[in-house]
Amino acid sequence: xxxxxxxxxxxxxxxxxxxSVAFALALVIRNHVLPFVLPSIRExxxxxxxxxxxxxxxxxxxxxxxxxxxxxxRHALWEETRFLIKGTSIAFALITVAVFITKxxxxxxxxxxxxxxxxxxxxxxxxxxxxxxxxxxxGVWKKKxxxxxxxxxxxxLVEDVARNRTMGYTIVGCLTDDRAMxxxxxxxxxxxxxxxxxxxxxxxxxxxxxxxxFPNIPRDRLISLLKRWEGLSDTIRxxxxxxxxxxTGIEIENIGKVLALTVRKNLHKPWNVxxxxxxxxxxxxxxxxxxxxxxxxxxxxxxxxxRGPVFFVQERYGKRGRVIKVFKFRSMHADxxxxxxxxxxxxxxxxxxxxxxxxxxxxDPRTTRVGGFLRRFSIDELPQIFNVLKGEMxxxxxxxxxxxxxEEVRQVKSLLLQVxxxxxxxxxxxxxxxxxxxxxxxxxxxxxxxxSLWLDLVILMxxxxxxLSGHGAY
Length: 474
Fold this sequence. Notes:
By secondary structure, the chain is of the alpha/beta class. 53% of the residues lie in helices and 14% in strands. It has 19 helices and twelve strands. The strands form four sheets. The protein has a six-stranded mixed beta sheet with strand order 3-4-2-1-5-6. Strands 7-8 form a two-stranded antiparallel ribbon. The chain has a two-stranded antiparallel sheet with strand order 9-10. Strand 7 (250-255) and strand 8 form a beta hairpin. The chain is globular.
């Protein structure tokens, strides 16, 4: 309990500091910068004390953040940033309404409010990250977690937790249903035993939370186990299989006394499609001009490396099943198909790899020297921005699938073909070519059902990071 109180007070102090600094910066710019940049704005000495003396502003702010569970829930960085922006916007709106209703005089200036809002949404995530890092260093924010699940699903979860360090979860070990795996490790985390031994593991490790990730466990068996484990932890989190209904987007509503689950398809709503299209078209237009000189250099390198065209054009399925020609920089030899056929015929392991991933991960005989570099950093896909400008593709979306690939996924084929394919997507930022084909398909389905403009922004930012690292590219 003491740790929870200390963590709460530290986060509140950090938020108050960030908001106060945001207002101070807004006042400095309003008083000393804007009058010189925009002569129509008169110079005026709005005092910081006029805002800092209104303690109710910070109390209202903290209340909004509390309501949004920003002091109790542990979010990944991007998710917390989204909630911070939402909470900050609500707080500003409520403060404005409160001042209007109470008629308390505050020298409110529109530039100050706008600037303070912008500085707040910029500073709050940074200060939050710093505060949680300090709490982690002091051992206050750490929470011991045990993961119970199958080997494959547990590996993905362990890697995700490691990437989101400021969530504070420390995985002390894993429990599995396969006794033969006991004593081994999953992504550096030891498998401590079978899940029937959970009481003994609790005494040895003192874990506080349980995360369960059994993708194919029968429902009755799962409920029985969750009830048994409930008294051993503060919280139990169950992570269903990526392709399950519950993870692909549902809304809960009451029909009389009956609880109904409504399946979402966010990217099929006309207003969402219009907002996404306008945002991406504007971004594509701004991006294409500085990219043209880069394209010229890449084209020259391709021509100097091997004989053949600069661009590789491939037919893929677009929206409503229309066949589109997708542009890429050529990264393979002119006789790529023959090289692949011969290589797969001579290598059974490579053939199995191809059938699983639809790509070759270890060695691809089709790739040229320049092509290997382009594919490593996903530069070969940049010409698809012309597909975006033509309205055939999106910057972010599901993969543009081949005809033979869609024949394997008839269950979600109609869902995928109702939206434009994307240059990048969740599959690109969640493992790229390392992901099995079925997992990439599940991520595309999740994206369509749970789309938001914020999700697109996060994917675009993560795409840059993943592309620069070259991780998972083949």
